[in-house]
Fold:
Amino acid sequence: MHTPHTPLLRYGWDEHAERGYAPHAAAGFRPARILRVDRGGRCLAATGDGTVRADTGPVSGTDPTAQPCTGDWAVLADGPTGPLVHALLPRRTAFLRSTSSKRSDGQVLAANVDVAIIAVSLAAELDLGRLERFAALAWASGAQPLLALTKADLVPDVTHLYADAAAAVPGVDVLTLSAVAGTGTAELAQRLRGRTGVLLGVSGAGKSTLVNALLGEEASAVRATRDRDGKGRHTTTHRELFPLPGGGVLIDTPGLRGVGLWDADAGVEQAFTDVEALAARCRFPDCGHRSEPGCAVLAALADGSLPHRRWESYGKLQRESARLAARTDARLRAEHRKEFKRRQQEGRHAMERKRGRLR
Structure:
């Protein structure tokens, strides 16, 4: 049955969005999906009547993780200068990273994502540590990771590269693709049908070429990678959501130079299920995996079934996550102390004014 929201089906409108919008329906607001957030507090949003430009407005206060982002479902109101984002609907999932290794602020890269596609170029040297980091963040987001090994046409034999990459992301499906040759893109499009995907990876991974192949048109600019190191330049400068011809939507993102963890403890555990399973078999529940007898981790390292590189990567991500959590707790405590002192000062001033009136 046709409803006012039927045009939004191509942008991913579903029962979750319908439930989130219900409390706002009676107030006369209209639902929209944010396709792109531009500088200056403006965004491009899809509504039942087409796409509009809207002011993002102060809907999230000072919390950077609550700022409107690509993939958000929102309700629009009529502002003094045009459409205004009045509120964001509850997110099903959110892909977050820390904004800096020296800070404890988070940044949302994409919201309401079902599939996190990690694009890795086979034409460049595999960085398994970065791949594990992307997988941890993808698992932490609540989305299903999917590894896309791109530029397969540039490699004579992908067998060993495929095996190495798959071993680094247990539980994650791996696709081998060549947007130029047209192999693998049909299967990827099928996996995105009726779902929201986000495309992640470093510059030169072939993301823009893959987006164009899935859309069947030149929606993203493409530049050649440098021959000397296989790296590319940033061709995508912002995150943008595109509806796919066969159904589903895809969020393209700029190349990520850094992907710091953010509230990713569960994601790290999911990305290293093999290590977690070994640790669970240790003789002692509090095993430190250093010299304890009956340590299954040390045994696996000794016989080679657990690569030292993977064990070190696991420890690195765990320590990073713990440090970020500690900094976040410290920042929250500092903010609470600041607020407490402000209220104390206001109380003292109020008491002094009261005493002045009583004299």
